[in-house]
Each structure stands twice: as C-alpha cells, then as structure tokens.
Amino acid sequence: MPKGPQSQKRPADSNARAIMVARIAVGEIKETPEAVKSAAAELGSRGGKARAKVLSKGKRAEIAKKAAQSRWKKS
Description:
This protein has 75 residues and is an all-alpha fold. The chain is built from four helices and no strands.
C-alpha cells in the first residue's frame, strides 16, 4: 500500500486516493501523522554529536583515519 509524506497509509486505487485527498481538503477527514517509533528518531539530531562527546581524542582520530583510508581505497 502506498504511503504519504509522513508514512501514513493511503489507498492504492487512484480514484479512492483522489476521494480521500478531497475529503482531507474539505475537512471531512482529519489527518494526523503517526508517532515515530524508532530509537534513532527518539534521539533526534543528537546522535553524532553525543557520540563525539563520549569518544576520546585518540579514538576520534583513529575513526577518522579509517574513514579516510576507506574513501581513498574506493578511488
């Protein structure tokens, strides 16, 4: 089944989809996006920043060297 911009379920049939969009526009149906349930979404944009704070300077340098080697290896 197709999903909308916020991953809400939409009818697969184009006619039914058009009717649903019209009902939403008129106000017959109220559209509420579902809550995000993934752990990454709960952390939000803090993921990489929080990890960088926890890692030591040496460990960050080691990770950066490994990433650079990986990038240069591809080309």
